[in-house]
Amino acid sequence: MTWTTQGISIEQLDDLVHLFDLYMVFYGKESHPQKYRDYLQQRLSQNEAHVYIAYDPDYRPLGFVLNYLSFSSVSLGKVVVLNDLFVIESHRKKGIANQLIHCSIGLALEINAIRVDLGTARDNHSAQALYKKLGFVRDTQFFSYSLST
Fold it and tell me: Tell me: the pLDDT tens digits for 101-148?
């Protein structure tokens, strides 16, 4: 393995903002580092997000996973929501995403969560293959709906 992963705090905000900006551009959003910095700084300073970053041996950020906590009333337990996962293009398909997902799973185990939930684009077949390989099961019982406000 030529990288390490670590949970981050506000001290690594610059590393996260750099990766998050690339992530947002990947999803068709405009590059807007200051806007993303403000958002991420709030999440981290208020302990609303659990973020892990993969670093190369020279401590350059290669990818991140951002998790939020939620709850399930029916199951009476905590849920880790793996909300954002990104690896820079030059380092994809090297196991970094796999390791970052394991950070989310480790978080779930640490806090006694009942599951890890995630979503992905229907056309993101490489991510879907990785999730399936790691044991994630696509929901066939429920539909998801959203309402923009």
Answer: 999 999 999 999 999 999 988 888 888 889 999 999 998 888 788 877
Distance, in Å, from the CA atom of 11 to the CA atom of 41, rounded to the nearest integer, reads 10
Rg of the chain (C-alpha set): 15
Q: Which residues contact 27 (CB under 8 A, 6 or more apart)?
A: none
| pLDDT at residue 1, rounded to an integer | 62
Q: How far apart, in whole angstroms, are the C-alpha atoms of residue 31 and residue 90?
A: 19
What does the alpha-carbon distance between residue 58 and residue 61 come to, in Å, rounded to a whole number?
A: 9
**114 with 16: CB under 8 angstroms?**
no
Q: Which residue has the tokens 């429920």?
A: 142
Spatial strand order of the sheet with 50-55 comes to 4-7, 50-55, 61-72, 77-87, 115-118
pLDDT at 87 over 80: yes
pLDDT at 148: 79
First-last CA distance in the chain: 44
Which SS3 state, helix, strand or coil, does residue 66 take?
Answer: strand
Maximum Cα interatomic distance, the chain, rounded to a whole number of Å: 46
